[in-house]
Design goal:
The chain is an alpha/beta fold. The chain is built from 16 helices and nine strands.
């Protein structure tokens, strides 16, 4: 949802990373990049990410610092980039542009007053994903062999579609629209410290006693990225109204109100523009040295800002390569609990048993070797 009203209704719970190991996540790239972009700009001097020609690439610092969180926890991200802006979203895009322009005006005032703390906060609010940021993010993903998909329209809709198909285990976004787009499981707080938050569709619908169509109607009554909600209608009122009247049309008729383009917005959630023309290669083989050169030499990023991130990436991905027997199974999306793949568990048990037998055999062999006296047939002088 454009606003956070749906949070009050969604089924959400913190989950430990250990329960997600082996999972594949379709990550809303715009959402993820913007979070790291604004954080980097807020807490890092602009000289660290600005080239001699004035190009700003704070996204490269954010990407290098953010990617290790996935690989440290044996998660494979598939980034999904937005396509064209949906016509119905033009008002929301304009609103965000106006907010950014307002922040730019206040930023100039803060800088003129010498208020560096306020200036840093406002500078983060003025950020947008420029053509350079889009280009360099994709190029860095290519060098690191991190998969990504180009959505025809909304990235969240594409993430939800891939999760419904079972091509990934989770959608990943800080927003709530993935729920309305029908993602069975969504991971949130992927850019925050601590454990992620799991949002599950089936549990949400069961707890609210709604269908997905009715949940979308609740969303429209509160307001989404594509429409303003009804005045005075929050999530609890919207929920009760849909439960009482069955659907959006019954609520609007009862209240004597309208939502412009409501039929088109509902259809956008039920049948959004998505693509299945992607081929996910989840065997990641990054060129860390080339990536470092790209970020530091080609784009003149301060090496001190990315060295630790590259070290973490190399360590995590090399270990993943050593553990090539690990089964990257899917989480059953019909079950709201994140669980390990049964086959993964079987394989893990098999290897654990095999390794135990190997080391026990080696131990007993060593002990037999050690107690043989010198001169004993087959023994050795030590």
């Amino acid at each position: 949802m454009g606003n956070a009203d749906l949070r009050q209704l969604a089924s959400l719970r913190d989950v430990p990373f250990a329960s997600l190991e082996g999972g594949v996540i379709a990550v809303d790239a715009h959402n993820w990049l913007y979070k790291y972009l604004t954080t980097t700009v807020k807490w890092t001097t602009d000289a660290a990410y600005t080239t001699a020609s004035g190009e700003e690439v704070a996204n490269l610092i954010g990407t290098v610092q953010g990617l290790p969180k996935f690989f440290d926890n044996d998660l494979t991200p598939v980034f999904v980039f937005d396509g064209g802006v949906t016509e119905l979203k033009t008002d929301e895009v304009q609103r965000r542009r106006e907010q950014r322009e307002s922040a730019e005006e206040r930023l100039a005032e803060a800088e003129a007053a010498g208020n560096q703390i306020e200036a840093s906060r406002l500078e983060a609010q003025t950020q947008r994903l420029t053509a350079t940021i889009h280009e360099t993010s994709r190029e860095l993903f290519d060098i690191l062999d991190v998969p990504y998909v180009e959505a025809p329209a909304e990235g969240e809709a594409q993430c939800a579609y891939m999760a419904r198909r079972g091509d990934v285990d989770y959608a990943g976004s800080e927003d709530y629209d993935t729920l309305l787009f029908g993602a069975p499981c969504t991971l949130r707080q992927l850019t925050s410290k601590g454990n992620p938050e799991l949002m599950t569709l089936d549990s949400t619908l069961d707890e609210l006693e709604l269908t997905l169509e009715q949940l979308v109607d609740v969303g429209l009554l509160c307001g989404t990225d594509f429409n303003d909600g009804l005045d005075g209608v929050g999530p609890k009122t919207a929920l009760q109204s849909v439960q009482d009247h069955g659907d959006l049309w019954g609520v609007l008729e009862d209240r004597g109100e309208t939502i412009p383009h409501a039929d088109r917005i509902r259809e956008l959630y039920f049948d959004p523009p998505v693509t299945d023309e992607y081929d996910l290669d989840l065997e990641i083989d990054p060129d860390i040295e080339r990536a470092q050169s790209y970020v530091v030499d080609e784009w003149e990023v301060d090496p001190s800002e990315v060295t630790r991130g590259f070290d973490r990436l190399e360590s995590a991905l090399v270990q993943t390569g050593l553990d090539d027997w690990t089964w990257r199974g899917s989480v059953e999306t019909s079950d709201p609990s994140p669980i390990q793949s049964p086959l993964r568990s079987v394989l893990a048990g098999f290897w654990a048993s095999a390794l135990s037998r190997f080391w026990l055999a080696a131990l007993f062999s060593t002990r037999r070797f050690e107690i043989r006296p010198a001169g004993h047939p087959g023994g050795h002088n030590r």
